[in-house]
Known about the structure:
Helix 1 crosses helix 3.
Amino acid sequence: MKLSIHPYFLEFIRPFKLAHGTRSGTQLAFIKIEFQGIIAFGEASIPPYFKETFSSINNWVQDQEQNLAKILLSNPFDDPEGIPYSSDNPAASAALQTAILNWHACAKKKSLIDFFPQNNTKTDLALTITKNDVDFLDEKLLLETNFTHLKLKLTGNSDDLEFVKLIRRKSDLDFCIDINQGCQNKEAAIKLIAALENLQCKLIEQPLHKTDHDGHLWLKKRTKLPIIADESIGIYEELIQYHEAYSGVNIKLMKCGGLIQAQKMLQFNPQRSITSDDSEFMHLLGCMSESTLGISTSAVLASQCCLADLDAPYLNKNDPFIGFRIKNKKIELDNCIELNDNTLFA
């Protein structure tokens, strides 16, 4: 059994602007397992605001090597607790878990999606637009026929509403908002949310700082728009502890630690009687800046979610994998996600 970890810098087609800064790409770490003639990969995304680094991922993954052959020869779906996981290393955990599950699926001559529940209900799909897309908006909106929603990335600055209104003049597609902790306080947030509600926004994601659960609960009680946790809730234990402050959660493999942990979060459907909000808790599926490998892994869970934000491959310039598409408002997955260049990670 051979285990290796490979650094890779994923470049964006255009700079990506969020409330916490603008960047041209994202550092990734690819996990490669070679065993019994089968090669399988997993991916960790390491944006600069993550506490994990390539070094920490490399060290944690290497520490798991001695048990990998035993895990691979068993059925990891029968014993998910036996798959290495660390809440302190969620991206590393997600990457290694993906490689393990991909290896098992390939050994069984199946696809990863065959091992997870698939619902027949339609999942809405979001196309991300940032302020840096404004100069290329007509080109970007050529993609909108394949999506059901736009996700507009705000920054908490004074030009937020001007940006939203510009997009609305160009597109009548339903839209939601992600503020990425950009609002300075709850008073500024509720003023912005009221204006967005008048523009028929569908939901608001992470307006306040990730630790401000009381502030998010205050907002939730004062608007009809769903207030969705992203940075505020990463792992299952945080979902249990803080869900009452939110209308739903955006689940991301890089935050929660992998498919098994994400599935557990999807099965959590709390009673809403403790607060005045009796609506059903919303499960969204999201991603970091990831390649087709990471996105196709998340996509096996998409049918269980009301909204999936998995358009990251459409932002990338040098994606090393192929096999994922969004067409006519549906996700298309190849049976096998393949490398663009077989000399990579050799």
